[in-house]
Amino acid sequence: MSRAYNFVSLLLFACLALATEPVVKVLNGSYSGQHLPQFAQDLFLGMPYAQDTGGQNRFRIPQALNETWEGSRPAKQYSDACPDHEPDDDALYGMSENCLSLNVVRPAGTALNDRLPIMLWIGLPTYNLTYIVQRSVEVGRPIIGASINYRKGGWGNMYSIEIQVGGSISE
Length: 171
Ligand SMILES: *[C@@H]1O[C@H](CO)[C@@H](O)[C@H](O)[C@H]1NC(C)=O
Ligand SMILES: *[C@@H]1O[C@H](CO)[C@@H](O)[C@H](O)[C@H]1NC(C)=O
Ligand SMILES: *[C@@H]1O[C@H](CO)[C@@H](O)[C@H](O)[C@H]1NC(C)=O
Description:
Largest sheet: 5 strands, mixed
Number of strands: 8
Bound molecules: 2-acetamido-2-deoxy-beta-D-glucopyranose
Order of helices and strands: HEEEEEHEEHEHH
Distance between the termini: 72 Å
Strand content: 15-25%
Strand order of the largest sheet: 3-4-6-8-7
Oligomer: single chain
Structural class: alpha/beta
């Protein structure tokens, strides 16, 4: 009887543990992601990898993050797309200069010492990494999928010698 009870509570505990949102620690804080039970995956979306590129950072090379925070920040939604002439991006996720962000899709419960290979995708958000990560698990060669945003056009490429010496950017 008590053994059965123990088993049930263990099972309950396992289910609860699976249902809770995944949290990861980075250098200066934590992010809470989203668990996708139907794919047995954890998503961490829209985590900045550099500062906002607006204001005094416009046209500059990416400026390193320099913040520390308590508790966990939500990483459950894609960030805005970088400024672009393509209206599609805008319709999907919004568009702003605060766009240098990273998305991570991992098989649920991946531990630090699993040392899974990481596939980095730079491109259209239409390619949903969930399916390639799912396939990698099915074939027994699990990977972590990651994707990033980057600045295009003038926003990404105008940090020229002329701009630097012309006084357009305050140092
Ligand atoms: C982490 O915090 C330290 C001190 O608060 C800061 O110097 C450093 O730039 C921060 N690093 C990141 C990646 O935010
Ligand atoms: C981080 O750097 C920016 C300039 O790039 C500065 O305005 C801001 O005060 C810095 N924040 C911290 C916590 O040092
Ligand atoms: C991929 O698409 C599925 C189905 O719409 C969705 O549940 C999942 O959140 C998407 N994954 C990512 C990484 O955006």
